[in-house]
Amino acid sequence: MIFKNFSESAQLLAQKIKDEEFTSSALFYLNFESKDFAALVAKDLNQPISLLEDPNLLTTDSKYLIIIDRGDTLAEEYNEFTDILHQKFPNKEVVLAIPVIPTAEEDTLKKAADILLCLHSEPNFFSINQFYQEY
């Protein structure tokens, strides 16, 4: 799957989140590299988004904690953040929302989160650049 640009993949990922009916969700991004992409998804969902380390996370009433990333974070980093969230919030479901992931990491990501949402899993994943016409 090739996307025209990050806006297109953000729109498609937002639609997938809507289709899964993740009402009562809080949206987060992991790092500043994914902030702009995550903001595009949040805009399409008409919801606020914040950095995962934001102290407001401690007061969220949301059932789902959705981590939005553009796909260039390592699986180990996702594991670290989802482990922290599972420890702090055992009654909330952690969702990873990523447009494209390496097939080799799909099982690892499914184990890290309660729910994995991705638009495409690619066996020949070299970098996220290969999935965008305008990169």
Task: Explain what the structure shows.
This protein has a single domain, classed as Rossmann fold, CATH 3.40.50.2020. It is α/β, with parallel strands linked by helices. A five-stranded parallel β-sheet has the order 2-1-3-4-5, with helices on both faces. It is globular, with a radius of gyration of 14 Å. Helix 3 links the parallel strand 3 and strand 4. 34% of the residues lie in helices and 23% in strands. The mean pLDDT is 89. The longest helix has 14 residues, at 6-19. It starts with 5 loop residues before the first helix and ends in a 13-residue tail after the last strand. Helix 1 (6-19) crosses helix 2 and helix 3 (75-88) runs parallel beside helix 4.
- Strand percentage lies at 15-25%
- Indicate the CATH topology: Rossmann fold
SS-based class: alpha/beta
Overall shape: it is globular
The proportion of residues forming helix, as a percent range, comes to 25-40%
Report low-confidence residues grouped into runs of 5 or more: none
According to DSSP, the number of beta strands is 5
How many helix segments?
A: 4
Q: Mind telling me the CATH class?
A: Alpha Beta
Based on the coordinates given, report the CATH architecture: 3-Layer(aba) Sandwich
Q: What integer value in Å does the Rg equal? A: 14 Å
Distance between the termini: 15 Å
The major pleated sheet works out as:
5 strands, parallel
- Tally the structural domains: 1
- Summed over residues and divided by their number, the pLDDT gives a mean of 89
Q: How are the strands ordered across the major sheet?
A: 2-1-3-4-5
